[in-house]
Every structure is written in C-alpha cells, then in structure tokens.
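Need a sequence for this fold. Nothing fancy.
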C-alpha cells in the first residue's frame, strides 16, 4: 500500500467518526466509504489515491465551468482579500449591487427586483412567503395555498418540501407539511405512443386549468420547475405548457413561481428555461449554477407590482422581514459575477449546443436496449430511463438497489454518475470536451448493462 492510499482510507475513517452525510443511509458507508477529494480541475475530481473521476453530474448540478476554474477562483480570492461579508440589512456592497443589475437585465423587463438568500430551498421559501404576503398586503389574505405538479422537487426545508411531491424525500415528514394542491405533471414520459411532446404537455393543461378555476380564490401561487423535473428523475415537458400556464395564472390572478434552481444558466439550451416559452414568471428562483458551483447563494427575482405592495411607511407594517445571516454574501456574489462574465465573453450556449448534439449521437443506440424505456434530452441534460419491462415500463423493484450498482461501476471506470432510481443521467459541466463526453456516455451505457443484468 503506498502512503497516499493510506491517506485515502484514513480520511474516510476519520470522516465516519463525526461527519453525518446528506441524503445518505450512513450504514451504507460500512461497505462503501466516502471518497475524499483532494482537488478538482475542469470536469475532473481527484481523490487522495490519485484516482480521477469525471464529474458527470456537476456535483449535484451546481458546477458550470469546471472545478478550480481560474477565473472564478481568482475573483473569489480578490473579493476575500477585500471584504468577506457584511450583513445586507442597512448595508450593501458592490458585488450584490452589480449582480442584481446583471440578473435583472438577463431576466427581462418584467423582473426588476432581486431578493437574495443563501441556498435553493431558502429561495423557494422566500418566493412562497412573498407571494402569500403580497396577496395579504393587497387585502386578499385568503389566497394562501399553493398549487404544485406531481413529481415536483423544490428543496428540503418544510415549506419547499410541502410543494414537492417526490415520496422518497416527502413521505416521512408529511405530518409536518403545508396542505397543497397537486395536479398531474406535463412530463412526457407517460405519453401515449404516437403523441408528440407538445400534444401531451398541452393536454395536461386541462386539469391545471380546471383546478385553477375552482381554487383561484384561495390560491397564492403555482410553482413549477420549467421544462425539466430534475430530482423527480429528469422528467421533461414541452415549453408550450409554460405558455399556457402563464396565461391561465393571469386569467385567474394566481402567481407563477418558476423554480430555475437546477435548469437556469444555460442548462436547457437557453440561458433561462422560461425563455423557450417566451414567458416571465412572477417569481424566478435561482441558485446552484448561479455561482458556477462555488458557493451557496440564491436569488428570487420579481417585478415592480410585487415590490410596490410591500413599499410603504414603516408603520403600515407591510415590509418583507425575511432574512438569512449570509444573505447576498460578497464572496458568493463575486463567484456569480465571474460566472456571468464567462457567459458574457464566451459563446457558451453555442458550444453547449454542439456538446449536447454529441451526447445525443453517442447515446442514440441505447434507445433500442431491451431495458431502456426512453432516452430523453433537454440541452445539457441527458437521461436514460431503465425498466424491468420495456413494454409495460414496469420499473425494477427499488429494493434491488440497481442504481447503486451503476454508481459503483461508474466509479470503477473513473466517472461520477449518481442515478436517480432507474434513471441514469448525465448533466456535465459545460467545459467537458467531446472526448470526455464519449467516455461519459460509454460508461453510462455500461451502467445500463450492469444495472439491468439479472
Ligand atoms: C436543488 C434544488 C432545490 C433546492 O436547492 P438547495 O440549494 O439544495 O436547497 C430547489 N429546487 C430545485 C428545482 C432544485 O433542483
């Protein structure tokens, strides 16, 4: 055993004495210890044994331009030497100001105000509270419920979990959650043979429309993940649904919250996913890629009408008093500005178009695999839905933990893939090379083989 290998094992053992990991049954680590990462470069992570892993899921969908990106690291270092943090109540700083200017400019004329928080779930909480509070300030305090889509995911804090619908995360906490109204997702996986994405998504508007009609008086907002329900298994739908939903929300006087925490910043092919539908939401939630995957930060963008409903003499008690200690942290804002600078100075979306086409071509043969029900793609997200029976689309029993087999096989091949149940997906940083795409997709194909073997 060489010394660096020892170091790997030692760190894992020390970790397990005190660190309680997220989204993990800690007992699993008896057989499969956590991998200590020494450094990153581009799409690669390197552990203490010197083994390298291609980060094909962008470290939970946060990374855009690679690990240890020189431009972003440099910007954070400069900011750290100048000002690490100051509270954003009563004080402000240039990175927060410039970032708000740039985000509102990118989001279009309807979204002019930027409220900061420090993670995705917190942004969802802000949007929910702001929507409810807006209606209350307008004398419509009865509008206090939220409408959500089946299979939605909006984070793990209690409000965000309430508007989510993935049983794995939600079920245990059900007794603690807000009562919400849930309608079927426009997700196209379940469409009838021969029906286009557009027809299917359009068709699922009927229930949404009827529900809005019936409950408008008590609804504050509808919340959706535009185009891709990521944590729900990378389920995808057509932009026409967002268009129809925008119009229906206007007709029924219900806010539309777009949670672009996972899909914003070029992931789906456009800068924001909502652009593909040509709509603006009333609240736009951003996080994850916002800082290029560097630091926790989130923002909720909204418009003048919402802002004005809170703007009054102090004694009117209409202000939005929500806050987090690290709201608008300068280091995180500096990382975000460096990230936006890369978008502004490089042809990122064009390059992503080419990379996405390469992913599609390399993965195409998988669609005829006997255990693959669908290969679907939206921009830089490619998902392979594996099933026990291709005809009935019956999934493998979850108890068999086939995703874990896929995860382990990918690691052994130097690729980090972390399937969502039967869905093996790739969501790489945008700095991935064509050759690295080939490796990533080839390993994903091996994972399909391994995880579907008897
Ligand atoms: C990840 C995610 C969240 C939650 O963000 P956190 O920073 O993990 O709290 C919310 N909504 C969507 C769509 C997400 O993918």
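Here you go.
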């Amino acid at each position: 055993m060489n010394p660096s290998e020892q170091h790997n094992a030692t760190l894992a053992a020390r970790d397990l004495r005190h660190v309680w990991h997220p989204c993990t049954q800690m007992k699993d680590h008896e057989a499969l210890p956590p991998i200590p990462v020494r450094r990153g470069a581009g799409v690669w992570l390197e552990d203490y044994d010197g083994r390298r892993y291609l980060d094909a899921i962008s470290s939970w969908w946060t990374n855009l331009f690679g690990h240890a990106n020189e431009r972003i690291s440099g910007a954070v270092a400069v900011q750290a030497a100048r000002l690490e943090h100051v509270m954003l109540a009563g004080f402000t700083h240039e990175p927060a100001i410039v970032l708000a200017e740039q985000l509102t400019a990118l989001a279009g004329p309807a979204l002019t105000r930027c409220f900061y928080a420090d993670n995705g779930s917190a942004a969802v909480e802000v949007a929910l509270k702001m929507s409810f509070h807006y209606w209350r300030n307008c004398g419509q305090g009865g509008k206090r419920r939220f409408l959500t889509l089946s299979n939605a995911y909006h984070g793990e804090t209690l409000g965000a979990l309430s508007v989510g619908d993935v049983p794995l995360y939600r079920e245990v906490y059900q007794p603690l959650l807000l009562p919400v109204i849930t309608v079927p997702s426009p997700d196209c996986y379940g469409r009838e043979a021969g029906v286009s994405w557009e027809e299917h998504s359009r068709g699922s508007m009927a229930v949404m429309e009827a529900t809005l009609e019936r409950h408008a008086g008590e609804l504050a907002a509808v919340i959706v993940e535009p185009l891709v329900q990521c944590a729900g298994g990378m389920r995808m739908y057509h932009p026409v649904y967002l268009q129809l939903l925008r119009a229906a929300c206007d007709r029924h006087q219900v806010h539309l919250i777009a949670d672009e925490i996972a899909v914003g910043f070029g992931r789906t092919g456009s800068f924001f996913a909502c652009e593909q539908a040509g709509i603006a939401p009333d609240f736009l939630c951003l996080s994850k890629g916002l800082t290029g995957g560097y630091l926790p930060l989130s923002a909720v963008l909204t418009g003048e009408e919402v802002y004005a409903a809170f703007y009054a003499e102090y004694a009117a008690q209409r202000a939005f008093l929500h806050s987090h200690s690290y709201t608008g942290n300068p280091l995180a804002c500096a990382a975000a500005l460096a990230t936006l600078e890369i978008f502004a100075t490089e042809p990122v979306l064009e390059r992503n178009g080419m990379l996405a086409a390469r992913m599609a071509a390399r993965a195409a043969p998988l669609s005829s695999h006997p255990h693959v029900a669908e290969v679907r793609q939206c921009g830089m997200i490619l998902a392979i839905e594996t099933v026990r029976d291709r005809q009935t689309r019956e999934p493998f029993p979850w108890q068999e933990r086939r995703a874990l087999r896929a995860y382990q096989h990918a690691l052994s091949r130097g690729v980090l893939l972390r399937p969502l149940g039967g869905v093996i997906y790739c969501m790489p940083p945008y700095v991935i090379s064509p050759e690295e795409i080939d490796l990533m997709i080839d390993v994903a194909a091996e994972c399909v083989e391994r995880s579907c073997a008897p």
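For context: The chain has two domains: 35-68+348-452, 74-345.
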